Amino acid sequence: MPRFFSGDELGAIKSISYSQGSSPKEWKVSTTVLVPGDSSGRSKTIQKLAVQSQDSNTLLSAVRADGSASLYNVQNEIELSLVHEWSEPRLKAGQRFIGVASANSGIYTCTSNGALRLTKPGENGAEASSAVATLPMRLCEWRLSKDASTFAYGGDEVELSLWDTEAAFLTSSVPKPSTSTESSESKKRKRGDELLPGEIWRAKNPVHNTALTYLQPSATAAHQHLLVGTANGNVRRYDTRAARRPVADWKGVGKTGGISTVEKGFHEHEVFVADRGCTLAALDLRNGRTIYSYHGIAGAVTSIAPAHSVLASAAQDRFVRLHSTFSPPPQAGQQQEHKGEVLDKQYVKVTPTVVVWDGIVDGSAGVAEADGEGEGENEDEVWDAMQAAESDSEEEGKKSRKKEKKSRTA
Hints:
single chain; mainly beta; 5 helices; 43% strand
């Protein structure tokens, strides 16, 4: 029985649990309000949620538009107890939280103006503590790796960047670029290529990055696979071992307003992408092709949460939906036999802003997770061959076009 947590524009947090009926397409839903909304307006909008399963406890972190943050302990599946509250005073007007993550080391939060914070709730009567760092401004997305050893961010003309988490808090701030007119263009380029203290890797040629996610765990901090969505609707894949440029750049995936969110699925080679229109689709990571799209969505999807064989989404048409998911075909380019559908949709009075899976798996889901353990190795092989494959396809395209021209002239 998958369970999700959702947040909305008035600050309400809900628990949404699904149970399957007598048929695969029949699902029953149970919704519980854990935190009521605030009638004062959108100052309490839930901007991000994060879940961590710790022993037998489920910890839920929430950050709001007014800069406040809360850590809850989910009890009996229908009750919350407040563990700790804090605020981010560096959040300025017009800025927002663009990332929150919960790990054994604490709760990480990041804002669009580069205010990074690690909060450690007090245990056994000890006082809570926090550490801060400053990142570049104009950020749109921030993600923490699964083992919390690295984080990545991107933004409006801010290059995709990979950082060592621990090292990032050892330096007080990110140096601001010099405005001296005496600096030559060559010095500016050299300075721009230099990594900042704590920075491991940075992409070349900045674009407007709007969404990103890690694609698979890595044993080495400097070797990461990242997927990025851009404001012009492209989806880019990066391998930090290969180069500072994307190893694949799939254009026009987002049809309206650019990419709003990207998330790695639980099936091999599966990723989900939403734009700022009404598109929510599953992509094949081997070639970037859309294997199926979900129909009947009348508003922009703001958040998605994969949970093994299902996917939850929150959209601006005031619906929280549950979707079925199916793995990409065995061979890239083959026809997709089964396509995902909307299994259930719940109308809510207040626009939902975010949805997250609680991370708890049952026995059947555990099998799926075990089957995916070798996914990283298989994807590495695909990625290593990507550049060669792309160059080959380009050559084939040129040859085919030449043949077409010859046949037409004949």
